[in-house]
Design goal:
The complex is a heterodimer of chains A (564) and B (596).
Chain A lengths: L7 H7 L8 H6 L8 H6 L5 E5 L4 H6 L6 E6 L6 E2 L1 H14 L5 E3 L5 E6 L4 H10 L16 E2 L6 H17 L6 H6 L27 E4 L13 E8 L2 E9 L18 E7 L3 H15 L10 H8 L1 H12 L19 E4 L5 E5 L5 E2 L1 E2 L2 E2 H11 L3 E4 L5 E6 L1 H13 L15 E2 L17 H14 L9 E4 L13 E7 L2 E6 L10 E7 L1 H18 L6 H7 L9 H4 L3
Parallel strand pairs in A: 6-7, 7-8, 18-19, 19-20
Antiparallel strand pairs in A: 1-2, 2-5, 3-16, 4-5, 4-13, 8-9, 9-10, 11-12, 12-17, 14-15, 16-17, 20-21, 21-22
Helix pairs in contact in A: 5-6, 5-12, 9-11, 10-11, 12-13, 14-15
Chain B lengths: L14 H12 L3 H17 L14 E7 L4 H15 L3 E6 L13 E7 L11 H8 L10 E7 L9 H12 L3 E2 L4 E3 L4 H20 L10 H4 L11 E10 L9 E7 L12 E4 L5 H10 L7 E4 L2 E4 H8 L7 H11 L2 H8 L1 H10 L2 H7 L7 H7 L6 E4 L4 H4 L2 E7 L2 E4 L2 E4 L1 H8 L5 E7 L14 E4 L6 H13 L5 E7 L2 H4 L3 H9 L5 E6 L9 H7 L1 H9 L3 E6 L4 H17 L3 H13 L3 E5 L1
Parallel strand pairs in B: 1-2, 1-3, 3-4, 4-5, 4-6, 17-18, 17-20, 18-19, 20-21
Antiparallel strand pairs in B: 7-8, 7-16, 8-13, 9-12, 9-16, 10-11, 14-15
Classes of the chains: A alpha+beta (564), B alpha/beta (596).
C-alpha cells in the first residue's frame, strides 16, 4: 500500500526554510495588499492571518479593486497576563496602525488586532517587540498561546500554575530565526541548514496544538477542550502536580461525520517537575503520529482515536520515561468569571470587567478603550485577559481601588447589570473579517442574548446561568460544542442548534436542530425553558436537564456518538 | 485597425500575407484605400469565410471554467483538465473570475463546474460571469456545446442553485447540452468520477470534428458609411457607469462603458472621445427660480425655437464661465465688487476657474434679465474630451472612459462638472452623443518590440488601459512599465485587478506606485521616477518610448522636472543638454504627452 498523499500545507512547510517562504518579497510587493497563497499559510506561524472585508467583496469586484485585504494579528501572551506599560503600547498600536481601531480579547486569553494593512505589519510587530511582546506561534501548526486560569483570589496557587503555563509556552516556541529576521531586521542567517527545530522538525506539527492549565474548582479555561490540559493539584496550598488530560478539540466540518469535536481524556496524575517531559512526549508523539495527509483529521484527538488510547498512553510514558499515577480526585466547577471586585489572599483587590464580545472599542457612552488606557496610566498591578474574553484589573492596593473604580464607571466598563447567562456566554469574531464564517456571531450575539434573557425572565429562570456560545462556523473558536446551548453558523441567519453539554464543560453537546433561523431557535428554547422551569431538580443545570428528560442523548464518546 | 499596426499575431493572416498587404497598402492613395476596404468588406459579407478568433482555434479546445469557494470545484476541474489533456485534447482551464466573458461567443465546448453558496448565491469567483450571462449583453451561443457540474449541500434550501442557473441560461442562449447536468452533494466523489468519464466520452465527437472555420459577418463593421464628427455626433448608449474608487475614497472616479452599436466608429488607443451632455436638472431649476424666469418661455437660438428649460438643459453652457459673461453680470447686478473683478483680466481668470453660472448668480444676483437676452449671452455647450480607456481589439464596438467626477461644495451647495456629473448620474440605457477625436501624437510605437514607459497618475491612467488592452490583444510582451499614483492604495488604485492580471500574464513588466496619503510624507509618481532613475535611464537608452498623461498644471511639470533630473544624474548630462535630450525625444515622437 502506498503512503497517502501529504496535504498541501506539508509541502509548503517543508519548502519554507523554517517558515521564511517568500514573506519578505511579499512585503515588498505593493501592487497587492495580499501575500502569495503559500505565504498565507506561513504567516500564521508569525501570528497573523490574511483576511478581507467580506461585506465589501462584491462591491470591490465591481470597482475593479482587489478585496479589501487586511491582517488579523494575534499576540502570544501566556496566561493572558500583561503589564500596564505593555497595555499602553497595545492600545497605541490599535489606534494608530489598524483600521478597526479596536482591540479584540480572544477566547484564549490574548488580544488580536483586526484591519492591519500589509504595509503596517512590520511597524506593529516592532512596536510589540519594544514592550517584550510577540506574536510568534500565535497561529499556525505549533503550540498556540498557553492558557492559564487567571484566578486572582488564590493568588499563590495561580502564581505556581502560571509559572508552568509560561514555561510551557516558552519551551514550545519554534527555534527558527525567521520571525526576528523578517520583522525585527535581525541579520539574516548565512544558511538555514544549520538552524535546528529540535522539538518540531522541519514540518512542525500536523495541525494546531492547544494547551491550558486549570486551577480547580474554576474551569474558565475549558481545560477539556484542549489538546493538552493540566489540572492543578494542590496539597496545603502548594502545587504538587497535575491531572493530565489530552485529546480535546472543537474543530469539525459540517456534513463530514469523520470529523467531530471531542473532550480530552484523563491520562492520570503527574508530578509538577515532570511537566515538561510529559508535554514534550505528548506533543512529539502527535508530531510523529498525527495525520499529515488530511488536515481536517490532523488534530491530536483523531490521533488518539485512530491509534487507541492505550497505545497512545503507553508511548507517552515511554517517551517521558515516567509512568502516570492514578488521577487525583478533583472538583471541576464553573467556567465563568467572577465579575466585580474580589479580594485575594494577598489582600490585593482584583476587578473583573465584562467586555461584551471581547471588543475593546470606543463607542458613544461606552469608551472602553479610553477607559482601559486611563486605568493603565495609573495602575500598579497587572492586566489579565480571561478565557471568557474579559479583562481583570489585578493587584490593586486598597488606596487605588476607588480611583480605578471611578475610571471604570466613567467609561462604561462597570455599572451595567450583567445577567447570569450573558456573563457565561461567548461568541467568536465571524463576519465580516473571518474568512471561515458562514453566519454572524460577535455582531449579532448581544441582540440574541437579549432575547435569551427575555425568555429566561418569561419562565422565571433568569437567575439560572446557562452557558450559551455562538460561532460563525464549526471550527469552534468560542468552544460552542461545550456549551449548554451551542449555535454554530451554517449560512447567513442560519445556525445548527446544539444542546446538552454540562455546565462545567465535562460533557459535549449534540445537534438538536439543523440549519434553523432565529424564530425557530427561540421557539424551541421557549418550549424547553418552559419545561425546565417546571420539571428541573434542585440545582440542576439546563444542559443536564435536557439530557435527563430525554430531549437529547448524552455524548459520552464523541467519536462514536456525537453524530449518531 | 490601421495597416501599420497590422501584425500576424493579431490577425488571421500569415506573416507573408501581412507583408504583402502592407506593401500593397503603401502604394494606395487614400481614395484607393477606401475603395479597397469597401470591396473587401462587401465580398466578405457575401462569401468569404473569415476566422472569428485571433488567438487560438477555439473549436479544438475544451474550455473548463470553475467557480469555487472552498477549492472543491477547482480540484475537480483540474482533475478533468488532466484527464482531457492525457487524451490529447487541447484544454483551457480557467477560474471564472479570470475568464473574459466576451470570449464565450468563440467557445465551442464548455464545461462549467460551479458551487452554490449559503442561500443560493454564486461563489465570489463566479458572480461576474453569472451576472453577465443573465444580462442583455450575453451573446447568442448557438455554436456552443456545454455541460454543467453543480456542487452543493443538500441540507440547504437552494441546493445547487447556481449550477442550475448556469445550465438554464446557457440553454436559453441557444447552447446545446452535451450531457445532463449533475448535481453533487457534499459526498460528491463517486458522482464526480462517473460524470468525468461520461463527459470525456461526450466531447469526443466534437473534438474530433471541430477543425472547421467559423464564419462571421464582418460586413457591418467595415461599412462605415456615415462619418461621425463633432458636428455630427453619434447617439450612443451608456452600458455602465461604475464607481471604481472604494467607498471610503475622497475621490469619485467612474468607469464608463458606452456602446457604439452599429455606428462603425473606429478609434485607436490614444484617441479621445468627445462627449455631449445635458445639464443637471437641479441646476437648471435653481437658475430658473433664482432668475425668476419661466422655463416654458420660448427662446430662439440660431433660427430654432426652444423652451427656455430645454435651451438651458440641452443647448447652453452653464458650468464654464467666460469673461463676457462675467462682464454682463457685473453690469446687470451693479455690484462694485464684481465690476472690479470684471475690469481686471487676471482677477477674471481666477474667478472663472472657481465659479460657475449658478455661483455667479448666487453671489451677484440679477433679476431683470429676460429669457432671450440670457440665452443670447450664454455660450453653446461644448463637448468634453476624455482620453479613451479601451482598445477595440478588446472591447469591439464599445468605448470605455475613466472619468473623475468634478464635485465641490461651494457655499454649502454641491457643484458638479457638467459632463462628469452627467456621466456619473447616467443609468444603463441613457443616450448620449459622442464622436472620436483622433490624437495622432499619442500612439504606441509601431515596432512592437519597443519598450514603453507610461506615466499616468489619477485618471491619467486611462489611455494606458487602452494601450495595455491593445498590446495584450496583439500578443505584445515587450517591456512595459506603468507609473501610477493616487491618494490611497485601498481606495484609489484605479483598475487594480486589471494591472494585477497584466502583471501575472507578463503583459505588463513593471509597475511603480505612489499612494500619496498612505504615509506621513506625501509621495507622488515623480518621486518614484527619481528613485528608479537608473532603470528609467537604461530603458530610454534601449529606445523606450515615454508617455505622460494627466493633470497639466502640476503633475506634468513635476514629472518633467523629475525626468530632467534623471537624465542629468544617470545620463551624466548638464541641465541644458538634458533639456535638449528630452526635447529630442519629443521631436522623435519618443516622448508623447496627453495632458489637460
Amino acid at each position: 500500500m502506498s503512503e497517502p498523499k501529504l496535504s498541501a500545507n506539508e509541502r509548503i512547510k517543508s519548502h519554507s526554510q523554517h517558515l521564511r517562504g517568500t514573506i519578505k518579497q511579499g512585503l515588498a510587493t505593493d501592487v497587492t495588499g495580499a501575500f502569495s497563497e503559500d505565504d498565507q499559510q506561513l504567516i500564521k506561524f508569525h501570528g497573523f492571518y490574511q483576511q478581507d472585508d467580506r461585506d465589501l467583496r462584491n462591491e470591490r469586484k465591481e470597482q475593479k479593486l482587489e478585496p479589501l485585504y487586511s491582517f488579523m494579528l494575534r499576540a502570544r501572551v501566556p496566561g493572558g497576563v500583561c503589564t500596564p506599560q505593555q497595555w499602553l503600547e497595545v492600545d497605541r498600536i490599535a489606534s494608530e496602525l489598524t483600521t478597526s481601531n479596536s482591540i479584540r480579547l480572544t477566547t484564549r486569553q490574548t488580544f488580536q488586532y483586526h484591519g492591519i494593512p500589509k504595509r503596517n505589519l512590520k511597524t506593529i510587530i516592532q512596536g510589540l517587540d519594544r514592550k517584550a511582546l510577540d506574536s510568534i506561534a500565535a497561529c499556525g501548526d505549533v503550540n498556540r498561546n498557553v492558557m492559564c486560569n487567571p484566578n486572582p483570589v488564590q493568588s499563590k496557587l495561580h502564581q505556581q500554575a502560571y509559572y508552568w503555563a509560561k514555561k510551557l509556552s516558552d519551551h514550545m516556541l519554534p527555534h527558527t530565526k525567521a520571525y526576528a529576521e523578517i520583522w525585527l531586521d535581525d541579520e539574516k542567517l548565512l544558511s538555514t541548514e544549520m538552524e535546528a527545530e529540535p522539538l518540531y522538525g522541519d514540518t512542525y506539527l500536523p495541525r494546531k496544538f492547544k494547551m491550558a492549565v486549570a486551577v480547580p474548582p474554576d474551569n474558565d479555561v475549558d481545560v477539556y477542550t484542549n489538546d493538552f490540559g493540566l489540572i492543578a493539584i494542590a496539597e496545603n496550598d502548594e502545587l504538587v502536580g497535575f491531572n493530565l488530560v489530552a485529546g480535546g478539540g472543537m474543530g469539525s466540518t459540517h456534513g463530514e461525520v469523520e470529523t467531530f469535536p471531542r473532550l480530552a481524556d484523563d491520562f492520570g496524575f503527574i508530578r509538577a517537575e515532570d511537566t515538561i517531559k510529559f508535554a514534550e512526549a505528548v506533543m512529539t508523539l502527535q508530531r510523529d503520529w498525527g495525520n499529515r495527509s488530511n488536515r481536517k483529521r490532523a488534530r491530536l484527538k483523531y490521533t488518539i482515536v485512530d491509534r487507541g488510547f492505550a497505545a497512545f498512553k503507553a508511548e507517552v510514558e515511554n517517551r517521558a520515561g515516567v509512568k502516570f499515577q492514578p488521577k487525583r480526585e478533583v472538583v471541576i466547577g464553573d467556567r465563568g468569571d467572577r465579575y466585580g471586585w474580589a479580594k485575594g489572599v494577598d489582600n490585593q483587590w482584583h476587578l473583573t470587567l465584562f467586555i461584551e464580545g471581547g471588543r475593546i472599542k470606543d463607542l458613544p457612552g461606552k469608551t472602553l478603550q479610553t477607559g482601559l488606557r486611563e486605568i493603565a496610566k495609573i495602575h500598579q498591578g497587572d492586566f489579565r485577559m480571561t478565557a471568557n474574553q474579559n479583562i481583570i484589573i489585578a493587584g490593586v492596593a486598597d488606596a487605588a481601588k476607588q480611583q480605578i473604580e471611578d475610571l471604570a464607571r466613567q467609561h462604561g466598563l462597570l455599572g451595567e447589570v450583567i445577567s447570569a447567562s450573558r456573563g457565561h456566554s461567548i461568541a467568536c469574531v465571524a463576519l465580516p473579517t473571518c474568512p471561515l464564517a458562514m453566519a454572524e456571531a460577535e455582531r449579532y450575539f448581544p441582540e440574541f442574548m437579549d432575547k435569551i434573557e427575555a425568555l429566561q425572565q418569561k419562565h422565571g429562570i433568569a437567575e439560572q446561568p446557562i452557558v450559551v456560545r455562538m460561532t460563525g462556523c464549526p471550527n469552534g473558536c468560542a468552544r460552542p460544542f461545550a456549551a449548554e446551548i451551542g449555535l454554530v453558523g451554517k449560512a447567513p441567519g442560519r445556525y445548527n442548534l446544539y444542546l446538552g453539554a454540562s455546565f462545567e464543560g465535562t460533557r459535549l453537546n449534540k445537534m438538536y436542530r439543523e440549519n434553523i433561523q432565529e424564530a425557530e431557535i427561540l421557539s424551541e428554547l421557549d418550549r424547553l425553558f418552559a419545561r425546565y422551569a417546571v420539571e428541573r431538580n434542585a440545582g440542576e443545570h439546563f444542559g443536564d436537564f435536557v439530557v435527563r428528560v430525554g430531549v437529547i442523548k448524552a455524548v459520552l464518546d464523541a467519536a462514536r456518538d456525537f453524530h449518531d | 485597425m490601421s495597416l501599420k499596426e497590422l501584425s500576424p499575431l493579431a490577425s488571421p493572416l500569415s506573416v507573408s500575407q501581412v507583408a504583402q498587404l502592407q506593401q500593397f497598402a503603401r502604394e494606395l492613395t487614400p481614395l484607393q484605400q477606401a475603395w479597397v476596404s469597401g470591396y473587401l468588406a462587401a465580398s466578405a459579407g457575401a462569401a468569404l469565410p473569415i476566422s472569428a478568433s485571433v488567438q487560438t482555434q477555439p473549436g479544438n479546445t475544451l474550455t473548463i471554467l470553475y467557480g469555487s469557494q472552498t477549492g472543491n470545484g477547482r480540484g475537480i476541474a483540474s482533475q478533468l483538465a488532466a484527464q482531457a489533456s492525457a487524451q490529447g485534447y487541447a484544454v483551457n482551464l480557467c477560474a471564472m473570475g479570470d475568464y473574459n466573458a466576451r470570449s464565450l461567443k468563440q467557445e465551442q465546448l464548455l464545461v462549467v463546474i460551479v458551487s452554490t453558496q449559503g442561500e443560493g448565491e454564486a461563489p465570489d469567483d463566479a458572480i461576474e460571469l453569472h451576472k453577465f450571462l443573465a444580462s442583455k449583453r450575453a451573446p447568442r451561443l448557438e455554436q456552443l456545446h456545454y455541460a454543467v457540474l453543480a456542487l452543493g449541500d443538500s441540507s440547504y434550501e437552494f441546493f445547487c442553485q447556481t449550477g442550475k442557473e448556469f445550465d438554464e441560461r446557457l440553454a436559453a442562449l441557444g447552447a446545446q447540452s452535451l450531457l445532463a447536468r449533475v448535481d453533487c452533494d457534499v459526498d460528491y466523489q463517486q458522482a464526480v468520477e462517473q460524470w468525468q468519464q461520461q463527459l470525456l466520452t461526450a466531447v469526443q465527437p466534437h473534438l474530433q470534428s471541430s477543425a472547421q472555420v467559423v464564419a462571421i459577418d464582418s460586413a457591418k463593421r467595415a461599412s462605415a458609411a456615415t462619418v461621425f464628427s463633432k458636428q455630427q455626433p453619434y447617439e450612443a448608449e451608456i452600458l455602465l457607469s461604475q464607481k471604481i474608487t472604494g467607498r471610503n475614497s475622497i475621490k469619485d472616479t467612474r468607469h464608463i462603458e458606452i456602446d457604439l452599436g452599429e455606428s462603425g466608429i473606429q478609434y485607436q488607443p490614444g484617441d479621445a472621445l468627445g462627449v455631449y451632455f445635458s445639464n443637471y436638472a437641479a441646476l437648471v431649476d435653481e437658475l430658473l427660480s433664482s432668475l425668476q424666469l419661466d422655463g416654458e418661455t420660448t427662446v430662439a437660438i440660431q433660427q430654432q425655437t426652444y423652451s427656455l428649460h430645454q435651451a438651458l438643459t440641452e443647448v447652453k453652457e452653464l458650468t464654464q464661465l467666460y469673461p463676457g459673461l462675467v462682464q454682463f453680470w457685473a453690469e446687470h447686478s451693479a455690484s462694485e465688487e464684481l465690476q472690479a473683478i470684471a475690469a481686471d483680466r487676471e482677477l477674471t481668470r481666477e474667478f472663472i476657474k472657481k465659479h460657475q453660472l449658478a455661483d455667479l448668480q448666487r453671489l451677484y444676483p440679477i433679476t431683470q434679465v429676460d429669457a432671450q437676452h440670457l440665452v443670447d449671452v450664454l455660450r453653446p455647450i461644448t463637448p468634453r474630451l476624455y482620453s479613451i480607456a479601451s482598445s477595440q481589439r478588446e472591447v469591439d464596438t464599445e468605448v470605455h472612459l475613466t472619468v473623475g467626477l468634478v464635485a465641490e461644495l461651494r457655499n454649502g451647495i454641491p457643484r458638479y462638472g457638467a459632463a462628469s456629473g452627467f456621466l456619473a448620474r447616467a443609468q444603463e440605457g441613457q443616450k448620449l452623443r459622442v464622436y472620436v477625436e483622433a490624437n495622432k501624437h499619442f500612439r504606441l510605437p509601431t515596432a512592437p518590440e519597443t519598450p514603453v514607459i507610461m506615466i499616468g497618475p489619477g485618471t491619467g491612467v486611462a489611455p494606458f488601459r487602452a494601450f495595455m488592452q491593445e498590446r495584450a490583444a496583439q500578443g505584445i510582451t515587450a517591456d512595459s512599465w506603468l507609473f501610477f499614483g493616487n491618494p490611497h492604495f485601498e481606495q484609489d488604485f484605479l483598475y487594480q485587478t486589471e494591472w494585477q492580471q497584466y502583471l501575472k500574464n507578463g503583459q505588463l513588466s513593471r509597475i511603480s506606485l505612489a499612494f500619496s496619503r498612505d504615509q506621513q510624507q506625501k509621495i507622488y509618481v515623480q518621486q518614484r521616477i527619481r528613485e528608479q532613475g537608473e532603470d528609467v535611464w537604461q530603458w530610454l537608452q534601449r529606445g523606450a518610448y515615454l508617455y505622460l498623461c494627466g493633470d497639466a498644471e502640476r503633475m506634468a511639470k513635476d514629472v518633467q522636472q523629475a525626468l530632467l533630473e534623471v537624465v542629468v544624474m544617470h545620463g551624466g548630462l548638464a541641465v541644458e543638454a538634458a533639456t535638449e535630450y528630452l526635447e529630442n525625444l519629443r521631436v522623435q515622437g519618443r516622448f508623447q504627452k496627453d495632458v489637460y
